[in-house]
Structures are given as C-alpha cells and as structure tokens.
Amino acid sequence: MNNKIYSLVIVGYGGMGSQHGRKLEEVSRIKVTGVYDIKEVRQAEARTKGYKVYEDYQAVLDDPSVDIILIATPNDSHHPITLQALHAGKHVICEKPAMMNSQEVKDVMSASEETGKVFMVHQNRRWDEDYLAIKKLVDEKELGDVFYVETRVHGSRGIPGDWRHDLKHGGGMLLDWGVHLLDRLLILFPEKVTSVYAKLSYILGHEVDDGVKVYLTFEGGRTALMEVGTTNFITLPLWYVTGLNGAAVIEDWDMNGKVAKWDQADTSDAVPIVAGAGLTKTMAPRAENTVSEYPVPRVECDVRDFYYNFIDTIENTAERIVTNEEVLRIMTLMEAVFESDKTGEVVHLNL
Ligand code: NAD
User: Fold this and answer.
1) For a disulfide at 235, which of 154, 230, 295, 335, Cβ 3.0-4.6 Å?
2) 164 C-alpha vs ligand 1 centroid, how far in Å?
3) Please, what's the largest Cα pairwise distance for the chain?
4) Gene3D superfamilies from the xrefs (predicted)?
C-alpha cells in the first residue's frame, strides 16, 4: 500500500483557499506546505499558519517538492494557472466553476492528457447531505418514478465580495452557485438534456447576474427547475421533488422537510372542499389513511472523500468521482443558459 504524503500548495488563499487549508488538516495523505496569494494580507495570514509563502507563481511551479497545486483564485484565472501547473508536472485541484467556457475546459483536458497529470474540479456540493438524501430517494424509487425536481438556493444579501460583481472575473450567480446545482441535477437525471430555457436576473443593477432560473427538459420528458436568488427575503425550499408515488421537500441545510407517499390507491371519489371563494374537487386532499408522511432520510457524508478520491485517481486505484467529461458537460450547459437568456428562446440540445 502506498503511503506517500503529497505536498500541496494553495494558490489563492482567500475564503475558499483557507477553507481547503482547514479541511486538509484532516486528510492524512495530503500536507499543505505552502501558499501563493497576490495580496499581502493573505500572505501574512498564511505565515501565521506556518505555511511557506511563495514570492510568485513561477517559484511554486519551479519547486520540485510540490506535488499538487490547489487553485482557489477568482474564476477567470483558473485557466492560465491550471495550464501552467499541468505543464510544470503538477497535479491540479481546481475550484468551481472549472473554467469560463467549454473551450477552456477542453484545453485543460488536453493538457492533462498530454502531461499525465490529474486535473479535478472541486464539486464539493456533491457531498451535501440535502442532495444525497434526495439522490437516495430518487435512486431507490422511494417516490416511484420521479418526473420533476426543483433545486434552489435563496438568499437576500445580493452578490457578496468584490470580484463576484465583475464580468471579466467570471462573477455572477450562475457561475457561482448555478454550477453546483446544475452539476447535481445532471447526476440525478443522467439522461440527455434536450432543452433549456433560462432567465438571469439583474435586479441589483450589476453587470453580472444576481440570480438565475433555468428550466430543463430531459430525454424521455422529465423536467427540472434550477434557481439561484440573492434577493429573496423569504426562502423557498432547497428541494421539491415529485414522483408517481409521492413527493419530498427539503426546506433548508438543517434537513427540515418531509416525504409524503401514498401507501394505497385512493379509489374514493374526491369530496369537494371549500377553497378561497370557490369549491374544488380537483385539489381536494387524498383520504388520510392512504398517505403517510415521514422525515427525509439522513445520509452519512464526508467531503474529505473528495481529496481521498483525488489521491486514488493519481495512484489509479479507484474510479474518479468528478470526471472532466462531466465538467465539460456542465460548462456546455451553462453556455446554453447564457444563450437562452440572451435570445429569450428555448435552446434545443442533445447534451
Ligand atoms: P476570495 O476573493 O475570498 O479569494 C480569492 C483569493 O485569490 C484572494 O485572496 C486573492 O488575493 C487571490 N488571488 C487573486 N488572483 C490571484 C492570482 N492570480 N494568483 C494568486 N492569488 C490570487 O474568493 P473565494 O470566495 O475564496 O473564491 C475563490 C474560488 O473558490 C472561486 O473560483 C470560487 O468560485 C470558489 N469557491 C468555491 C466554493 C465551494 O464551495 N466549492 C465556495 C466559495 C468559493
């Protein structure tokens, strides 16, 4: 068994770079040895953690003791930093969104192939418990055949930070949160995407989107809604999933929510109920004894598995969890989202 400890340098030691530093303290096969950041204040912070602070990026590339470069810089810089790292013989963990467009992903895939060095994108939200609970319900057909999924995140504080407001740095909420939610949707519904209709929002007047709604249709007819909002004072559920035998809702990251499932067909004719200013038979509830409700399942998950899978991928001892083909597919889908928003039309795909 190989017990090599890999030396990793974090490039971009801001919010997410320092989060990686903390997480990696719990990963025995990787040691964070250094940091490169253009800001002095972040360099000073790295020194307090005992990391070697590099003067410039070339010094990281030239250091033969460095095995892995972890990129947590603003989105537009992922492409050049990754290409240089791979060509210098380093393996790369890169933050999401991998790149700014599908051509950049293709460049990096070619460079990874050419150099034999691993490039893997940190799609860490595949380890979120809310997503894994929904995946379990869908995979195990707990709700029968699932035909519709809504996935969203809502906040009310607008776009945070600095570079996330700038088009040239790859700001905006589609690239920020949308990439996570689309990534997971494409795993839940693995069939091809056949159409996309999308609307980005510019409510706060920035040059980049402060929110996005995407409607997806999949081969065979299943549909999904993906939504990111930063101007929502009341938040709607993270997940709402409907199948032929039931539905599930997850309200928040504390896993509040429920599953509702019919146990037996309700063969009785519906009794009309008073609803608002009228009567309705269509919206009358099912007979109580035909439906059961229970909490959403809890799922054990540990995002450190991402880093362990990265090492296994380097050593060729396991299937990689986040593939570059998946990353390319998401990036191509996001291009269709931008196109649909721009033209106001449905974009037809075979993706
Ligand atoms: P941040 O602004 O907090 O940190 C970015 C850091 O990069 C800053 O310290 C900045 O000085 C440094 N930097 C900028 N250009 C650089 C360069 N060329 N070389 C070296 N350092 C440079 O931003 P953040 O929120 O940490 O986001 C960084 C990346 O992480 C983004 O790609 C973002 O999408 C991603 N991110 C991912 C998650 C996740 O859950 N996977 C969460 C937050 C951010």
Assistant:
1) 154
2) 10
3) 76
4) Dihydrodipicolinate Reductase, domain 2, NAD(P)-binding Rossmann-like Domain
